[in-house]
């Protein structure tokens, strides 16, 4: 535990024992909170609001990342008030539980609803991406055992700033379908020994050219292929497929092929296990290009236009798959049936954990209602320091406590 936290816990424990109410400003986790939505205006062309200054609050980088994700979830709920995301993290009838991993000390939740919306939920998308990454690493290992080589392929198409994301996305999907049902593609598969592929979408927004949906793909084929020749062959087919729809792509960027290494999972899921919020779901792209979560962060910092763009993105991606294995590939590699996004969001991933606290649905709702934006993220950071720290935090902010059976109750009820 950080020394800063330890001293503050001791001070607040003594204060509570003496009957003094510990105020929100005195509580050790909240002294450096970020401004709420609308507190300052930010131009869409700046990086302010996406990369906040490092907080001198004693939190680790991962802890600040967790805090940011839960704040972004509350912001997304505000923008998408009629969507399933609004129910994310609501308590189930059995009550919400806070658990602590016995190996890592990290805290997580059980007994809460998960929206499973990988495109738009900052919290669920993390778990989904980690689950997909695990699947892809398994696929990569199985492919190597069968003597196959993985190749990275990226498809892009030219677009204009005034194009809507819905139009760009629809056109790209149609062009890719046209490509992969063509006779020429079937011949390419035979000649390259291609047995299948995994496709994943990435979408960014650029100040200069607007929405930019592009497809990342991992092809499993014969080892030792000439990458440059493969790139030329795929580009020729891609160019023809685009032309059928009145679209085009530059030779420089239309198709890129590279021999894959061991980071297949990161390539397709764009999520780095070690650096969390530096994953592409959240970071600013090159040349003032923003990921959807970057737009959400901009809106959170006060930029209304960024919020409108995020709503457009949510509408265009609703109901669409973000990652897909080609037909028969899972069976060929012995992977079995894949999990849905919602199943990955709800999975506990084999953790061994102990329960620190159980909230009734009513008290869990009260925490979310009375707490500021991102309060659940702060709760989990505190819980990572143990049940005692969580008990102090609940008492200081919400006049609640944890009884000897691990149930959260109102202070008045605990004293009776």
Q: Your description of this structure?
A:
- By secondary structure, the protein is α+β, with helices and mostly antiparallel strands.
- The protein has helices spanning 3-17, 61-79, 124-145, 165-180, 183-192, 227-243, 264-269, 292-300, 304-317, 329-333, 341-346, 361-370, 375-383, 387-398, 411-415, and strands at 96-101, 107-110, 149-155, 196-206, 210-221, 255-259, 284-285, 289-290, 323-325, 353-359, 400-402, 408-410.
- The strands form three sheets. Strands 3, 4, 5, 6, 7, 8 and 9 form a seven-stranded antiparallel β-sheet that branches. Strands 2-1-10 form a three-stranded antiparallel β-sheet.
- It starts with a helix and ends with a helix.
Task: Please supply descriptive tags for the structure shown above.
about 425 residues, 15 helices, 3-stranded antiparallel beta sheet, 7-stranded antiparallel beta sheet
């Amino acid at each position: 535990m950080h020394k800063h936290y330890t001293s503050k816990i001791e001070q607040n424990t003594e204060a509570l024992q003496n009957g003094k109410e510990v105020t929100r400003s005195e509580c050790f986790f909240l002294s450096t909170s970020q401004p709420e939505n609308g507190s300052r205006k930010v131009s869409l062309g700046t990086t302010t609001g996406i990369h906040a200054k490092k907080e001198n609050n004693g939190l680790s980088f991962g802890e600040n990342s967790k805090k940011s994700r839960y704040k972004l979830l509350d912001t997304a709920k505000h923008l998408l008030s009629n969507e399933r995301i609004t129910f994310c993290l609501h308590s189930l009838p059995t009550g919400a539980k806070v658990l602590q991993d016995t190996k890592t000390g990290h805290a997580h939740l059980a007994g809460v609803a998960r929206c499973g919306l990988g495109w738009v939920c900052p919290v669920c998308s993390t778990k989904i991406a980690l689950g997909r990454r695990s699947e892809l690493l398994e696929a990569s290992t199985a492919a190597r055992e069968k003597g196959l080589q993985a190749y990275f392929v990226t498809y892009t198409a030219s677009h204009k700033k005034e194009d809507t994301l819905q139009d760009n996305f629809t056109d790209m999907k149609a062009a890719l379908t046209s490509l992969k049902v063509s006779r020429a593609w079937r011949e390419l598969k035979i000649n390259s020994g291609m047995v299948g592929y995994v496709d994943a979408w990435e979408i960014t927004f650029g100040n200069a050219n607007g929405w930019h949906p592009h497809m990342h793909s991992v092809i499993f084929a014969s080892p030792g292929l000439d990458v440059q020749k493969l790139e030329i062959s795929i580009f020729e087919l891609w160019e023809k497929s685009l032309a059928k729809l009145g679209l085009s792509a530059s030779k420089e960027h239309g198709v890129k092929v590279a021999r894959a290494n061991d980071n297949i999972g990161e390539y397709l899921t764009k999520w780095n296990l070690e650096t969390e919020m530096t994953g592409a779901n959240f970071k600013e792209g090159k040349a003032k290009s923003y990921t959807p979560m970057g737009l959400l962060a901009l809106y959170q910092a006060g930029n209304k236009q960024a919020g409108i763009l995020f709503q457009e993105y949510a509408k265009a991606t609703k109901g669409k798959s973000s990652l897909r294995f080609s037909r028969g590939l899972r069976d060929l590699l012995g992977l079995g049936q894949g999990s849905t996004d919602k199943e990955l969001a709800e999975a506990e991933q084999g953790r061994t954990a102990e329960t620190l606290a159980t909230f009734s649905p009513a008290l869990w709702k009260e925490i979310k209602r009375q707490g500021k934006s991102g309060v659940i993220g702060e709760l989990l950071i505190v819980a990572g320091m143990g049940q005692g720290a969580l008990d102090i935090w609940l008492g200081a902010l919400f006049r609640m406590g944890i009884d000897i059976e691990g149930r959260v109750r109102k202070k008045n009820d605990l004293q009776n």
